[in-house]
Amino acid sequence: MDPIRNPYAPGAGQRPPELAGRDEQLAAFDIVLERIAKGRPERSLVLTGLRGVGKTVLLNALRSAAVRRGWGTGKLEARPDQSLRRPLSSALHQAVRELGHPESDQVDGVLGVIKAFAQRESAPGTKLRDVWNPGIEVAAAKGRADSGDIEIDLVELLTDVGGLAADVGKGIAVFIDEMQDLGPDDVSALCAACHEISQSGLPVIVVGAGLPHLPAVLSASKSYSERLFRYQRIDRLSREWADQALTAPALEEDAAYEAAALDALYLATGGYPYFIQAYGKVVWDVAPSSPVTAADVAVAAPEAEAELAVGFFGSRYERATPGEREYLRAMADAAVELHDDDVDDVGSVPTADVAAVLGKKPQSLSPARDALLKKGLIYSGERGRIAFTVPHFGRYLRERG
């Protein structure tokens, strides 16, 4: 079929042509926006799931929903080596600009607070030319969001930004991707600020997305975070939605799939959105004509797997050191040896089993495990067990030999 008309989009965070299976989350978020705008109490939102399930895509879709309602929005991606101050300042700067508040003096006052919050990261005595500028032309405020205590400063900052939004009957939404990578102090401050904002009834909401252990990260910081956020687990698509993700874009291009082809594609992709797009793109390019057959899928499978091995699995595998790769492979092997009654829905394995595969004491493997946790290649959903953050990663490792 014509590769120019290929509708599939296997890209990191790239919206697929058919956002299948996420109607429930989009509808629920519309209600949240309406309630907050009307001064009703509502919790901030946290999306969790493995890599490749479409968290970033959904995060962007929720942001678009907020923009359509006239909200001010900003987005940032957390990084383990970066403080929250700079990226959050940039996100809130954009959100305030989107609000379109008619009183320039009030807007400038809040922008001054954002600038003060951002520049407080600089060490005392830093020369003016070396102080980071968030692109805000007004002077930094004095005595507001500049104490140096991130928790105090963030509460003051969001209070001022929320007040500006309330003036025009709108809201502010901050979207944070890779939220599990925030530092401990920043997580604590963010939870405290969300708590304060919800109590004051200001129209501000935080929407975070991260790996499955993100709720545990938040809970370890503030015990009340379990009541502070609405948690939504984003998982692979059901068979019905996986089929729609393939067939709806094809129908727009006057193409179709045979039932056997859809059977083969669901077996190969497991319903994971990123895999669906990757397979869909290759299958489209190799299929000579419509409808796509199971034979076409069989021909396309090696190429699709090769692309995933390089772009999805391989790029992550290369980040690991030789010792860490040995640990990853042992995880994959340990998963195969699990008894049926010890298998859970995330494919986790006991750390003791990994140590047994390697013939080492669990304590001696702590450095490798901790490094992999920090790199986001594995996570611990419960004490004594670990799992891959990437679906099908164990299979990839075993096939490497």
From TrEMBL:
PROSITE patterns: CYTC (PS51007). Residues 166-271 form the Cytochrome c domain. Pfam families: AAA_16. It comes from the Bacteria. This is ATP-binding protein. One of its GO terms (molecular function) is electron transfer activity. Residues 1-20 are annotated as: Disordered. Keywords: ATP-binding, Heme, Iron, Metal-binding, Nucleotide-binding. It comes from Nocardioides marmorisolisilvae.
